[in-house]
Amino acid sequence: MRRLSPLLLLASLAACPAQDDPVEDSPVETDTDTDADSDTDADADTDADSDTDTDADTDADCSTTPVSGTDITWTTVMSGLSAPTFVTHAGDGSGRLFATTQAGTIVERAANGTTRTYLDIRSIVRDGGERGLLSMAFHPDFATNGRLYVYYTDNDSDTVVSEFTAATPATSLPPTSSERIVLTQTQPASNHNGGQIAFGDDGYLYIGLGDGGGADDTFANGQRENTFLAKILRIDVNAGTPYNVPSDNPFIGVGSHMPETWVWGLRNPWRFSFDRSTGELYIGDVGQDDYEEIHVAEAGDNLGWPIMEGDHCFNGANCDSTGLTRPIWEYAHTSGVTAVVGGYVYRGCALPDLDGIYFFSDAPYSGSSPLRTLDLSGASAVQGPIWQSNAGALIVSFGEDEEGELYVADAGSSRILKMTPGN
Questions:
Q1: 1 in a domain, yes or no?
Q2: Within 13 A of 268's CA, how many CA atoms are on the CB side?
Q3: Which end of the chain is more exposed for a tag (fewer CB within 10 A), N or C?
Q4: 3-state secondary structure of 352
Q5: Distance (Å, rounded) from C-alpha 381 to C-alpha 421?
Q6: Does pTM surpass 0.85?
Q7: Could you give phi then psi for residue 94, rounded to 5 degrees?
Q8: How far apart are CA 421 and CA 330, in angstroms?
Q9: 12 CB-near residues (< 8 Å, 6+ apart)
Q10: Other CB atoms within 10 Å distance of the CB of residue 128
Q11: Residue 13 reports pLDDT greater than 60
Q12: Sign, Cα dihedral of 28, 359, 282, 143
């Protein structure tokens, strides 16, 4: 049976009645039970462009007092967002947060808690299902060049990665007229759109795309070399028109491979991230009916789809796994339909006992997501110190602020939540 991935639930949530009283800054209690997942009714979305939170962040200079232990809670820092899809920072020392919404807006939250619409491209975005404005990334030199990048589905249902420029990065808004299209990809179906973009510590832009949709690799892109689909790409946006291919990309001149390819053989990379300490690339790749998988990938790796699903031959068939990169972690579908949500290795200030722990989740159809962690300190990944069946949020994405503190986009109640010490 074909399985739906995280963003399909956003469309149904957007159709719910609006809340009368959007939640402001408040802790979210988490369930530390490690048994079966517990679903609760999802809160409805609201649509607000401007909001002031009463408990603004004060940790932009890493002045947060560290707290020992691994107990956590979640605190609302943005609310009233209709179908949030991603949260990130500008890396400019301002302490600002930026949240994307599926419909095509970016909402900025200043360090004092005030919010405003930072960019509105709804007129050129097709949303619904797994489509929409799916993520954004600020140029490493944003503080001086004002350049930011977005990944969205256009009105023809195709993938677009574009650049926008804010003339005065610290204060001004990027005009829609500043758009420069960097890369496009025709999408044969509405699902498996990927959606993540991020800059590595090498200064290059990485772009994640799924296999084109359907089930069972319908369009045979998983192991196809001459397509952007089912890949993570790596490009240089600082040169070329519209970009250059870095000279050390692994597939330049190799077979029929696209030279932009960095990693291939993916089904639908729903969130990848870089460990800000080691530079390692972590990928959560959504499986089909049986297994979800997490990889630490290097240049040239083939993650195996559709030869394999997780660490198993796909559909139980015999297969040749020679040359394929195995996941560091997989989990089976033991409690209904699931789809991995890749996260981050924690490198923040507030919870030093969680340093180096990888956080990830899973997006159910409704209710609350689990919260999982992996300890990567040994020769292989093992279950980490946090393993909750109920995170108190419907997590569709993780994000970081400038100091490495973690956030989640909660599609169930239209919020951005910050992970904070629980005691």
A1: no
A2: 29
A3: N
A4: helix
A5: 24
A6: yes
A7: -85, -15
A8: 28
A9: none
A10: 17
A11: no
A12: positive
Is residue 3 a part of any domain in this protein? no
Angle (nearest 5°) at CA 267 between 266 and 270: 90
Q: What is the pLDDT of residues 35-52, one digit of tens each?
A: 333 333 333 333 333 343
55 in a structural domain: yes
Specify which residues 354 forms β-bridges with.
none
Q: How many domains does one find in the chain?
A: 1
Find the largest Cα–Cα distance for the chain: 58
Tokens of 202: 């090498």
pLDDT at 337: 58
Query: Would residue 80 be called left, alpha or beta, if left means φ above 0 and alpha means ψ between -120 and 50 degrees?
Result: left
Give me 34's structure tokens: 């490690």
Is residue 255 included in any domain, yes or no? yes
* CATH of residue 371: 2.120.10.30
DSSP code for 314: G
Query: CA 344, CA 8: separation in Å to the nearest integer?
Result: 23
- How many beta carbons lie within 10 A of that of residue 155, not counting itself? 10
Helices (H), 25-164: 142-145
Between CA 219 and CA 216 the distance in angstroms is 9
Cα–Cα distance between 130 and 121 in angstroms, integer?
A: 17
Which range marks the domain in which residue 405 is found? 8-421
